[in-house]
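Fig. S4 source data, part A: sequence.
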Amino acid sequence: MTDRIRLSRRRVLAALGTAGVVSAGAGLGTSAYFSDREEFTGNSITAGSLDMKVAASEYYSDWSEDEAEFASMASSPETTDVRLPAPDGNPDANDIALDLDDETADVYEQFVGTLRTGDNINGGVPVDGDLCGTESDADGAAVIELEDVKPGDFGGVQFAVELCDNPGYLWLSALLEAASENGVTEPEADDPDEEEGVVELLDEIQIAYGVGGIQDSSVFEDTSTGFQPTNQMTLREFLAAASSDKGVPLSPTGIADEATGRECFSGSSIAEVSLLWWLPVDHANQIQTDSATFTLGFYTEQCRHNDGSGQAPEDVVLSSDTTDGVRESGEWINAVVSAGPTTTIDVELDGAMYGNEPGEWPSNPTSYVVEAVVDHDFDGLAAADSNGFTDDFRIGYGGADNSERVAAGQPTPGGYIKRRQPDGSFVVVAEEDLSGFSATESADQLSYTFEIDWTSDLSATGAPVSTPGAAIVDEVFASDGGEGVASNPSPSNQDGREDIDNVTDSSGVIYL
């Protein structure tokens, strides 16, 4: 008889349950799988570098005897060997025209050699070897230091620039630091071209510049009337152009028409850049004793991932000093400057440092003031107030009885802009009367925002205005003129407010 295995539904489920237990047990008992491992060790990421090294040599003609061996004033200014043109529109000025000694071999190079002053930065130009790998930084040295400059004088600077390790875009930059008439002599006062408070030297000195050595075709060109510069502008115009944004964009072949789309400078060769200046032959009494101090420099950015337009300037944070009185330690004022053609200054006041209760600032609700002191120094105005300040603008927000708002004809709370005049005084214009400027106050009176469009028409402020390429926020301050914060708080205040510093530090130079 054949044995049959009979499986009922109960038995099948029981068997499956047993199998499940066995499988689970077998899984817990497994201790290894087939496996393998491959490793790539020593991985690292190191930032590259872009370091700029520079050298420079100065040239200056003061009509010394060694110069006269190779050149003389031209006998016929219409046809000459070297010409430094007078500016258009000045009938009193004449070209500086030179005849070179045709019988001397390499006379141009020898003449230029006599102009070298021996004032060199980092060994001078041309460079013997590489600048990379050396300590050839500018370190703030001056390459032009001249006194007693007279009509007919000329000179220049030849720079060598090397970008180390990586290619980069290059800009030639400049910044006017100070300009002064240094008083007015009798002949200067009698000159019909003398203008009170204006440093005419900035308008009489002529400038040319280019990529290459002083004798190269990018700086000089051969014309039918002589060898002369390829471009020409006043010192004032040059400083305005070279201080705008990052400066004047350069390319390996010359001055770039546009910053975007130009060629980069290589990271392995030395480029030369030259700047010429000359003071045309003129009676020029209006420039007597005038002086100008300015910075020359270069700016570079990496070439890769960059179109040459230049990165936006970073915000600058200004703060007052910390307080250690009975109030909590901290800064009473913090200001953030966002630079650009339109510059914004956001000011925050710490109410907890002023009083124990919200709303205590300002204690004088109609005469308080929050103000930013701005200096752009591109107009040649030189007069200083009794404290020695030569700032150009003061922009602020004041209460209804604030003296600036009253002077501007708006005896209500609001913004104002003060513009320094040639004699050191100020013209005050209310926010309502000037487009391109705004000032706002928050509901709790602890936040203020000033915005000024430097490209707008600011002529209502009463003095010549040029669009700055850089500025300095000398300070931001807040004062209620009472028992609270003030420049000289009342010593009778015994609750600690006299310990509050109501003035921030300076921003330093901010390129717009």
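Fig. S4 source data, part B ends here. The mean pLDDT is 81.
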